[in-house]
């Protein structure tokens, strides 16, 4: 079933003119999302096999021996975007989702690609879909979501997986974002070895100290965002190098992957960043990583 998206994000609700402007830029479409109105089960993996074929062809043509990864929604992310209107509890919904998604996850890895699980449910959902919960209730949901992710990926080696957490890839105030220190233990309890997270925007860059003070297992790799995906400013390579060096100081240079805060294309047909600027930013990312590597 479909329903019109629920309450606006808590930060945008306080700035209605900006919210209106952002939705106008995005084509002001009302997002009608599916909700869960019956038992969840896998019907077909054919669309995934199509994606794998296309991606393999692109990697063969342009990959030059690089490792590829494919994204998939985490069970918890699905609960945040496709609201439960059927199951007696969040946990019951999660259990069926974990069973339904397990084969997709394993198929991606069996095809020779790493699996990236997208998990904005562990951060962004606090001020969007779960804004009416208390913080304690939200953290309980987030912990259950990670348990489901771990169950669904139990057969996949952690080093073949990445997870991405974010607070929403939009140019809003973000002053309702849950602080990283409240969720970091839950994030670090997830099985994927590589953790991708926002580290370049003005709301979250300071949180490198949270990673410094956290108990990070030796097999974890950090993939901090060192370029912002919501601003057409092109980061100076020296700034990028400094950001990388902070994280290298925490876990060592061989466990840091210089990354972006989020993706450059969040909505189909709508990109916040000019495509030519995106290319410049990625070039700066490469230059900044080279500067850092020479110094580390």
Give keywords.
alpha/beta, disordered N terminus, single chain, TIM Barrel, 296 residues, 10 helices, two-stranded antiparallel sheet, 6-stranded parallel sheet, globular
Word description of this protein:
The protein is of the alpha/beta class and 296 residues long. It has a single domain (2-295), classed as TIM Barrel (Alpha-Beta Barrel). Helix content is 43%, strand content 11%. It has a 6-stranded parallel beta sheet. A two-stranded antiparallel ribbon has the order 1-2. Helix 4 (75-81) crosses helix 5 (90-110), helix 6 packs parallel to helix 7 (180-188) and helix 9 crosses helix 10. The chain is globular and about 55 Å long.
How does the overall form come out from the CA principal axes?
Answer: globular
Give me the Rg, rounded.
19 Å
User: How many distinct helices?
Assistant: 10
Number of DSSP E strands: 8
Uncertain segments: 1-5
Mean pLDDT: 93
Name of the top-level CATH class: Alpha Beta
* Measured distance between first and last alpha carbons: 53 Å
Helix/strand class: alpha/beta
CATH topology: TIM Barrel
Q: Largest sheet, if any?
A: 6 strands, parallel
| Series of H and E elements | EHHEHEHHEHEHEHEHEH
Q: How are strands sequenced across the largest beta sheet?
A: 3-4-5-6-7-8
Oligomeric assembly: single chain
Strand-residue proportion: 5-15%
The percentage helix is 40-55%
- Counted up, domains total 1
* CATH architecture assignment name: Alpha-Beta Barrel
């Amino acid at each position: 079933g479909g329903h019109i998206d629920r309450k606006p994000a808590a930060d945008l609700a306080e700035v209605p003119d900006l919210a209106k402007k952002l939705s106008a830029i995005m084509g002001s479409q009302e997002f009608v999302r599916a909700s869960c109105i019956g038992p969840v089960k896998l019907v077909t993996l054919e669309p995934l096999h199509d994606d794998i074929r296309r991606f393999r062809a692109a990697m063969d043509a342009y990959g030059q021996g690089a490792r590829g990864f494919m994204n998939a929604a985490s069970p918890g992310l699905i609960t945040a975007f496709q609201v439960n209107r059927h199951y007696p509890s969040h946990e019951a919904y999660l259990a069926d989702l974990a069973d339904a998604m397990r084969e997709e996850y394993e198929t991606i890895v069996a095809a020779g690609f790493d699996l990236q699980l997208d998990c904005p449910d562990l951060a962004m959902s606090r001020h969007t879909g779960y804004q009416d919960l208390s913080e304690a209730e939200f953290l309980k949901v987030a912990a259950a979501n990670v348990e489901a992710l771990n169950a669904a990926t139990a057969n996949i080696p952690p080093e073949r997986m990445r997870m991405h957490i974010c607070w929403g890839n939009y140019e809003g105030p973000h002053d309702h974002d849950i602080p990283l220190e409240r969720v970091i233990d839950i994030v670090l309890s997830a099985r994927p070895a590589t953790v991708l997270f926002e580290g370049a925007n003005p709301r979250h860059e300071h949180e490198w100290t949270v990673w410094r003070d956290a108990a990070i297992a030796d097999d974890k790799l950090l993939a901090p965002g060192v370029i912002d995906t919501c601003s057409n400013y092109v980061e100076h390579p020296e700034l990028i190098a400094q950001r990388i060096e902070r994280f290298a100081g925490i876990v060592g240079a061989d466990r840091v992957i210089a990354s972006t805060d989020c993706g450059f294309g969040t909505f189909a047909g709508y990109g916040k960043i000019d495509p030519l600027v995106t290319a410049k930013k990625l070039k700066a990312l490469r230059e900044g990583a080279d500067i850092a590597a020479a110094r580390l």
